[in-house]
Amino acid sequence: MFPDPSKSIPAVKICGITQEQQARDIIALGADALGINFWPKSKRYLPLEKAGWLPRIYDSTTLVAVLVNADAQTLDTLVEERLVHILQLHGDESPDQVAALMDRGAHVIKALAVRDRDSLARIGDYPCQSILLDAYNPGLYGGTGETFPWDLAVVAREQFPDKRIILSGGLTPGNVREAVLATRPAAVDVASGVESSPGIKDLAMVRQFIQQAKAGA
Ligand SMILES: O=C(O)c1ccccc1N[C@@H]1O[C@H](COP(=O)(O)O)[C@@H](O)[C@H]1O
């Protein structure tokens, strides 16, 4: 999923895909990774029983399962059946839980809600290399379409140079270029900002988002 960091071009993850044809269209537009939301309360929820198409595109992209405090059975299915390449954890998962998943061979992105500089200290607690920074919104776990102060992403990169910082939260085709230039993340991630309705992506917006994210300095 992650390109050569020396090129300063971020990977692009389009999140909350619910349909196989949209997945194929978005891969063709140049997305580096697709997010599938397995959290039942998400507006973009895809039940495991309806995810039978994932193996058909598994070799064409990087598939990321978006999860919030997932139960053991869901994690077992995702890890053991290799439905996805990466687990993106948006809940209250502890560093030990992340370490246990990594011990089982899972690649993990830990998402952290950013409110202020103090929120960044938790980055160092987690053993995974990839940390996604999202907007803080009490009671909500992500996918809100809200931004957080991007200077905090710069601080995160400087304080934790060994981590891959993924920027998310309220990104759109209209602001992603500015966000990339300001923060130089390893990747950007968007759900709400490229949708016509929850779980349905607007392909023109996706195309524009990818172009803007990868436009370079
Ligand atoms: O998209 C969701 O519904 C969602 C629900 C719970 C946790 C994470 C979710 N999505 C992730 O949230 C961020 C930001 O999304 P947005 O662009 O602000 O809508 C992104 O990482 C999504 O993958």
Automatic annotation (TrEMBL):
User: Can you supply a Gene Ontology BP term from the record?
Assistant: L-tryptophan biosynthetic process
User: Which reactions are catalysed by this chain?
Assistant: N-(5-phospho-beta-D-ribosyl)anthranilate = 1-(2-carboxyphenylamino)-1-deoxy-D-ribulose 5-phosphate
Q: Which CDD domains match?
A: PRAI
**SUPFAM superfamilies listed in its UniProt record:** Ribulose-phoshate binding barrel (SSF51366)
Q: In which pathway does it act?
A: Amino-acid biosynthesis; L-tryptophan biosynthesis; L-tryptophan from chorismate: step 3/5
Q: Which residues form a coiled coil?
A: none
- A Pfam match: PRAI
Please state the Enzyme Commission number of this protein: 5.3.1.24
Q: Which UniProt keywords apply?
A: Amino-acid biosynthesis, Aromatic amino acid biosynthesis, Isomerase, Tryptophan biosynthesis
Molecular function (GO) terms for this protein are: phosphoribosylanthranilate isomerase activity
User: InterPro entries per the record?
Assistant: Aldolase_TIM (IPR013785), PRAI_dom (IPR001240), RibuloseP-bd_barrel (IPR011060), TrpF_fam (IPR044643)
Q: Where is the N-(5'phosphoribosyl) anthranilate isomerase (PRAI) domain?
A: 12-212
Write down the HAMAP family for this protein, in alphabetical order. PRAI
- Family, as annotated: Belongs to the TrpF family.
Provide the protein name: N-(5'-phosphoribosyl)anthranilate isomerase
* Organism in which the protein naturally occurs: Brevifollis gellanilyticus
Organism classification: Bacteria, Pseudomonadati, Verrucomicrobiota, Verrucomicrobiia, Verrucomicrobiales
Q: Which gene is transcribed and translated to give this protein?
A: trpF
